Amino acid sequence: MVAYNIYFFNRQGTCLYYYEWHRPKSVRQGAGTSADDQKMMFGLFFSLKTFAAAMDPRQDNKSLGAPLRIGEACTFHSFCTNNYKLHFLESPSGLKIVLNTGPDAGDLRDHLNYIYGAIYVECVLKNPAYTPGRPFSCELFTARLHHYIRSLGL
Amino acid sequence: METINAEIFTLTYGSMVRQLIADLEDISAVNKQLDEMGYNIGIRLIDEFLAKSKTGKCGDFRETVDRVAKVGFRMFLNTTAAVTNWNAEGTECSLILEDNPLTDFVELPEGCQNLVYCNVLCGVIRGALEQVSINTECSFVRDVLRGSDVSELRLKLLSLNKEEYPFKDDD
């Protein structure tokens, strides 16, 4: 298994954190700039979530594109392509974590929850120097994240 | 969950309020500052609450307030609040604090009778709920430190926000 990259977004679409362990196709060859890359990633999961909710065969579905509240409609946890698997976690506070791994990775929901609760909350939100809503680059966070990702064998 | 000694917490809070009074010299400015500090705590604390309580979603405002009173107060203050006095529309209610560790050992001296000693709690609730797209107003209506038999927080729902796509299509 391999982990490619990870994104943290807030509700406003600001990319709070980005890290790539391994990205054979560089951003330059893809979206061009990292700002565009982040915006495309945000658009990808945002639209996918809206579509998933609109096509839900089980629940009263809102028309496509109608603004939803978090938790109001169904959501996706991951999707897999032949090249990579995208894992997605959204917290009711609007934080969104996207982790791209190889397609053979299993269900990482618990692990994303761990990254959220035990790494992000502890190292970033409890850091008095951190201003909420701003991108962060805290060493302790990065170190713990790497350590955890490595411990998963990614 | 990590815990600290309740007395240290109470005394630290007390000395902080004392310092604010010394610095700002105006009781209403202190009340405002406490609310502001609470707000800044609340917008961070919500993620810890969500991550540790594994709260996914609340069906309605009543359920949200219930979680705040039962799970939130338990997690951060080791106490609970009773939720009562709902208005007919279900948008306003009162949180009654039977036991509030912040007010242990506290007496308001002369000249501080308008101090809302625990105003930080109002800010915390407002800030935390704002992060989950619930805009509220919160204030103390009764306070044991000012002679009431219980402390009562009035919580009013203003609006519920939806998730909007934050970018314009053409940029």
From TrEMBL, chain A:
Any one annotated GO CC term: TRAPP complex
Subcellular location: Endoplasmic reticulum; Golgi apparatus, cis-Golgi network
CDD domains found in the cross-reference section: TRAPPC1_MUM2
Alphabetical keyword list: Endoplasmic reticulum, ER-Golgi transport, Golgi apparatus, Transport
One example of a Gene Ontology biological process annotation: endoplasmic reticulum to Golgi vesicle-mediated transport
One Pfam family matching this protein: Sybindin
Main location per the UniProt record: endoplasmic reticulum
Family: Belongs to the TRAPP small subunits family. BET5 subfamily.
Subunit organization: Part of the multisubunit transport protein particle (TRAPP) complex.
PANTHER family: TRAFFICKING PROTEIN PARTICLE COMPLEX SUBUNIT, TRAFFICKING PROTEIN PARTICLE COMPLEX SUBUNIT 1
Protein known as: Trafficking protein particle complex subunit
Organism lineage string: Eukaryota, Viridiplantae, Chlorophyta, core chlorophytes, Trebouxiophyceae
TrEMBL record, chain B:
Family to which the UniProt record says this protein belongs: Belongs to the TRAPP small subunits family. BET3 subfamily.
GO BP annotations, alphabetical order: Golgi vesicle transport; macroautophagy
Subunit structure: Homodimer.
Name of the protein in its database record: Trafficking protein particle complex subunit
GO CC terms, sorted: endoplasmic reticulum; Golgi apparatus; TRAPP complex
CDD domains: TRAPPC3_bet3
Compartment list: Endoplasmic reticulum; Golgi apparatus, cis-Golgi network
Function in brief: May play a role in vesicular transport from endoplasmic reticulum to Golgi.
Species the sequence originates in: Elliptochloris bilobata
InterPro entries: Bet3 (IPR016721), NO_sig/Golgi_transp_ligand-bd (IPR024096), TRAPP_component (IPR007194)
